[in-house]
Amino acid sequence: MGKDVADLVVVGAGTVGGWASYFARRSGAKRVVVLERDLVGQGASSRASGVVRSQAGTPATVELGRWSIAFYRSQRELLGTDSGFRELGYMILATTAREEREGRERVAMQRSVGLDVRWLSPEEAVELNPTLAPEGHRGGSYAAIDGCIDPVRNVRAYSLAMQRTRVDLRERTPFLGLRRTKRGRLRGVETPDGVIATERVILTGGPTLREVGRLAGLRIPVGAARHQVVVSAPHPAFQVERLPMVFDIGRGLYWRLEEGGLLWGMSNPREMPGPAREIDWRHLDAMRRRLARLVPVTRGLGIRKVWAATIEYSPDHLPIIGPAVTPDGQTIEGVTIATAVGHGMMWGPAVARIAADLALEGRTGVTDVSDFGLDRFDAQGRSRFYDPVALPFPVSFDD
Ligand SMILES: Cc1cc2nc3c(=O)[nH]c(=O)nc-3n(C[C@H](O)[C@H](O)[C@H](O)COP(=O)(O)OP(=O)(O)OC[C@H]3O[C@@H](n4cnc5c(N)ncnc54)[C@H](O)[C@@H]3O)c2cc1C
Fold first, then answer.
1. Looking at ligand 1, which atom is closest to the CA of residue 16?
2. What is the residue extent of each domain of the chain?
3. Which in 27, 51, 179, 346 has the greatest CB count within 10 A?
């Protein structure tokens, strides 16, 4: 058997690794191997809620959302299939004076970078989304271009794209570590089937990226936490073509149309970090009461589906995309880290495109990525930056 060689090895076949391998092939990388310890899409990517938004907290993250939406819209023409993007519009609701002030400031920042977003009074919000209670909120920001994808269809779309561009997907094949020369240069990756010789690696892993990092001798400050999603029984109020999605940002509760009912998701910042193992019914009930106050028709509405899955997060909610840097500050040439930290549906394609660009060319035209590197964290994982539009994740990283 000949030597196993690749121009690029991607670790993880979630939405970030999957799309990155496709973009790398489209950019001319000849042999692209994707290592997946499990089966394609079996991480967070098939379990997400699918919410996609351009309304983010920094100019660079606004661009990640916009780029990803444009990509989802172009998929049919590019690939003959798609991730099921549906434009629904998105309201980020304020329920306190502080949230309103911060929301209005965000609208000004987002408009300054050309995003079509505006502030809605409570009356305007109810006019756009008549299922919303007239009281209990102060209106919110609104962008018509935001929407959702179908996460399972997205796994199918990138799997097909990988197959058509002849990406070499190796399922049930874990990445075990990097092979480096005595001087530290990358020369390959270790798998149970032997070493793949390569000078370029993209490390993904979603909620397990910290473990993937450890295998590569890196400290990546990515946490993992439980995130719960519910799909309600159908209701005539939700049997409509278009109704804006809503994010009750202060409580980390969001909802959108799903199969004639409402899909709603939530994180609990008070629980301990770690993988999701079961449903937290107490928190779910508290959020159900909250939802019933803001969307009165959901009071007493049955539940059709519930799931809990593990989501990833970073201390500043910004993605991590850039060169691998060891705890003693040494850059490992050829190794790129890529995670959308809990925003893989809304930012995943852009994060994947940037990772492929950085791995192959050392630069990207997608957006300014200077704040996204691993070098922004200190030894305790503290960052200089912060994106305030995020779910309220646990504050610590212990698990
Ligand atoms: C319940 C839930 C709801 C969510 N809702 C939304 C939403 O509405 N909008 C949004 O933008 N985001 C949402 N997210 C977040 C989104 O799903 C993630 O950000 C995204 O899926 C992460 O993609 P990924 O490719 O980085 O990771 P994953 O999809 O987790 O893929 C990583 C892959 O790496 C593999 N792997 C791990 N270790 C190794 C190894 N050693 N060797 C080889 N392979 C390895 C894993 O098996 C996995 O398949 C949600 C997440 C959850 C859990």
1. 25
2. 87-145+223-313
3. 346
- Based on DSSP, count helices (H) and strands (E) in the chain, helices before strands: 8, 20
How far apart, in whole angstroms, are the C-alpha atoms of residue 289 and residue 7?
A: 53
CB 225 within 8 A of CB 267: yes
The whole-angstrom separation of Cα 328 and Cα 379 is 9
Which is nearest to 14 in space by CA: 374, 395, 355, 363? Answer: 355
Confidence grade of residue 398 (pLDDT, cut at 50, 70, 90): low
pLDDT at 82: 98
What is the 276 CA–ligand 1 centroid distance (Å)?
13
| CA–CA distances in Å: residue 398 to residues 39, 84, 116 | 27, 36, 39
Atom 24 of ligand 1, nearest CA residue: 206
Q: What is the pLDDT of residue 99?
A: 96
Angle at 69 between CA 239 and CA 347, to 5 degrees: 110
- Residues within a 6 A CB radius of ligand 1: 11-17, 35-38, 42-45, 47-51, 174-175, 204-208, 212, 215, 227, 229, 265, 309-312, 339-340, 342-346, 348
Atom 21 (ligand 1): residue with closest C-alpha? Answer: 45
> CB of 290 within 8 A of CB of 230?
no
pLDDT higher than threshold 90 for residue 159: yes
Reading the block at residue 182, the tokens are 């005595």
In the reported structure, the alpha carbon of residue 33 is separated from the centroid of ligand 1 by a whole-number distance in angstroms of: 19
* Spatial contact of 338 and 314, defined as CB atoms under 8 Å apart: no
Q: Is the pLDDT of residue 394 over 80?
A: no
pLDDT at 243: 98
Atom of ligand 1 nearest to the CA of 341: 19
Topology (CATH level 3) of domain 87-145+223-313: D-Amino Acid Oxidase; Chain A, domain 2 (3.30.9)
Question: Residue 1 has what pLDDT?
Answer: 64
Question: Which phi-psi region, left, alpha or beta, contains residue 292 (left: φ > 0; alpha: ψ -120 to 50)?
Answer: alpha
